[in-house]
Structure formats: C-alpha cells, structure tokens
Specification:
- This protein has one domain: Arc Repressor Mutant, subunit A, CATH 1.10.10.
- The protein has 103 residues and is mainly alpha-helical.
- A three-stranded antiparallel β-sheet has the order 1-3-2.
- It has four helices and three strands.
C-alpha cells in the first residue's frame, strides 16, 4: 500500500472540492460522491474552505459554490503543477489558468 504525503493529500482534496463546485452550485451528496471522500472528511474540509472564503454555501438551494478566491486558488495550483511538470515554464503564463465553467 502506498502512503501519500498528508499535505499533498490535503491540497488534492481541497482542489477536488473546489473543482467540483467550480461554476456550479453543487449539493453535498454530489460532492461526497465525486470527491470520493467520507462525510467526516468533507465536513472538515468544507469548514476550512468556508473559513477562508474559497467556497460559499448557498442557503436556499442547500448547495456549495466555489468563490472567485477559490478559483484563484485553483489557478495557482495549476500553475504550480505546470512548474513541476516543466521546470522552465514561465509562471506568468496564462495557459495553465483553469477554464471557469459558467452555468
């Protein structure tokens, strides 16, 4: 069994939650299913994301949605990955910015 670095796992889970709620209003059940995480883990991470304003809870619809700050976080993650994949790439390159899916 491969043991992942716990920090990397945390970033991956955050990234996956933000990606799922990117440009959409997504219900908790859908997020649990798509992110493939337990309810306890979901609650733990959503609390952090809400606290840092990376995600917002849409009360009447009981859904979650990634904020513009959350989209910026995703963009930075993509740029960091791009640097790791090709160390000589330019950080200011816009080609790794995620496409924002609007409803």
């Amino acid at each position: 069994m491969v043991h992942h670095h716990p920090y990397r796992d945390r970033i991956e889970i955050i990234e996956s939650i933000l990606n799922i709620a990117n440009g959409n209003e997504v219900r908790q059940s859908e997020m649990l299913h798509k992110a493939n995480i337990t309810y306890a883990k979901f609650k733990e991470f959503v609390a952090i994301l809400l606290q840092y304003d990376l995600i917002v809870y849409v009360q009447p619809k009981k859904t979650y949605k990634t904020t513009s700050k959350g989209l910026e976080f995703l963009s930075i993650c993509n740029r960091m990955k791009a640097l790791v994949i090709s160390p000589h790439s330019d950080l200011s390159s816009e080609s790794f910015v995620p496409i924002i899916r609007e409803k």
